[in-house]
Amino acid sequence: MSADDHERVDFRHQPISQLLVKVATRCNIDCSYCYWFRDASVYDKPKLMNERVRAQLLLRIEEHIVKHGLGDLPIVLHGGEPLLWGVENFHRFAEGCEAIMDRTGAAIPISITTNGVLVDDAWMDCFEAHDMSVAISLDGPEHIHDIHRRTFQGTGTHAAVARAARMLVARNIRVSALSVCNPAFPPQQYVDFFASCGLDHYDIMIPDATVDETPASVAAFYNGLFDAWLDVNRSKPSVDIRIVTDMITALLANNAPTEGVGYQPVELCTIMTDGTVEPHDVLRIAGNGVTQTRFNLFDHALDDVRQEPRWIAARDASINLAAKCRACKFMNACGGGYLPHRFSKVNGYDNPSVYCDDLYAMFENMQSVLESHLYVAKPGGERIALRDALPGV
Amino acid sequence: MALLTLKVMAGLLQLQGTGAQIQSDHQGLNALLDDMQTPPNKQAQARPAEEDSVLADKPAVEQVYFRRGFVRAPYVGGFRRAYAPGFRRGFHRGW
To answer: Do B6 and A252 touch (CB under 8 A)?
Structure first.
């Protein structure tokens, strides 16, 4: 299904509004489920972004902000493991962004997604000095985390990562945790662990898989996670579990703020270490070279990527849903699932998510629970339960 | 029962008369309802409840934000308003 013409024109005329910058293509640990190294073409790229590419990127960022009059352009520094780029490079890049902010008046918030192993005082000084926010990959408690997130020598990384998370919290640096769900364990174990670390913003993502695979069911895990979210936020909104709040928002408001949930075009722009520009980096899950383009920062302005055929194909795939999705009552809330989870070798992205049955069960459960929690409050103090107020609607 | 969306609830409120509001005893849900009903350009500002507007029942086709990176402003007490303001979508309400 395509969005109607009016809506398509609207978003097609929007400039690129965020950048995912790969400052390092390699990693210092060896996670078994990593999407990034499922595409061996990543080894053809330079290990680190060099000074020439960094300078050109800053030039293109300023040009883009000025040309489109942007008030802000968020940037996520990513990898591989981005901290391999080195703390001095982070300082120089952030200083370059700050100079652009001074000249243009635009905000350039910088976020880093890291495995946390290298975080030390020098890094925290850097995050603090440049007001960077940090997403740390942490799969909950040790017995879950260390199943997949191990060093090249095969040892677990949990102790180092949990220590980094606690240090970031203690320094009051804006830190969030990114987990991958392991449905073999109760969600409460994740929730309790993050609470023990003082982390109040985190996501527990559905494991990456294509339609050609048969991943374990995740519905029971996420229904339990929703229950845990309800428990912990009952008297005060204190813990944000992103996938839960995104699903509630998607269900109630017919949209969602991030690409994992909901019916929205995915217009991610990924800058590689050599200055080439690619579509959504998680599409590497589909195999070797699928995200490669001939587009690069030296010959093209940032927004020119919107004319690149592979980038357009990825964007269009995100809003052109399979027939089963178009007929589903949760189409707008679900959006067919996360785009990489719709890929198959036979049909490309013309599939419901490999987690379709799970997503349906999760939204069905969530809707039922939400109906029981909401009511109509009338000025005179009368309360009408939503279920009673909506009979037969 | 119809799919629970804010548009359905808006219709319900019209039926219930002036001043009716959708609420919850669950404070986490109440915070999300507030954020969803707040126009994006007002999300970073304190705002009286009367300014709430109802979102469309169609998906707004706008850009969304990368789920593997979190950019957000200092936590200020709610959910969505915890994030950096000014973006069309996602970073002021997402991560």
So the answer is: yes
Parent domain of A363: 5-368
d(CA A241, CA A162): 18
A82-124 pLDDT, tens digit per residue, is: 999 999 999 999 999 999 999 999 999 999 999 999 999 999 9
B37-71 pLDDT, tens per residue?
Answer: 665 544 433 333 333 334 444 444 444 555 554 44
Which residue ranges make up each domain of chain B? 6-82
Which among A113, A240, A262 is the nearest to B59, CB-wise? A262
Which residues 6+ apart lie within 8 Å of A253 measured at CB?
Answer: B5, B6, B36, B55
Give chain B's end-to-end CA distance (angstroms, integer).
Answer: 32
Write out the two tokens for A319.
């809003």
> Alpha-carbon distance A42 to A58, whole Å?
23
What distance in Å separates the CA atoms of residue A94 and residue A328, rounded to the nearest whole number? Answer: 45
Its pTM stands at 0.86
Region for residue A314 given its phi and psi (left: phi exceeds 0; alpha: psi -120 to 50; beta: otherwise): alpha
Does pLDDT of A2 surpass 50?
no
In chain B, the residue whose alpha carbon lies closest to the alpha carbon of A234 is B26
Give the mean model confidence (pLDDT) for residues A24-49.
Answer: 89
Residue A390 in any domain: the answer is no
Pairwise pLDDT comparison (B94 vs A34), residue with the higher score:
A34
In a domain, A377, yes or no: no
d(CA A47, CA A191): 35
Cross-chain residue pair A370–B29, CB shorter than 8 Å: yes
Complex-level ipTM beyond the 0.90 threshold: no
Here the CATH number for the domain that contains residue A211 is 3.20.20.70
- Among B28, B72, B78, select the one facing A229 at the smallest CB separation: B28
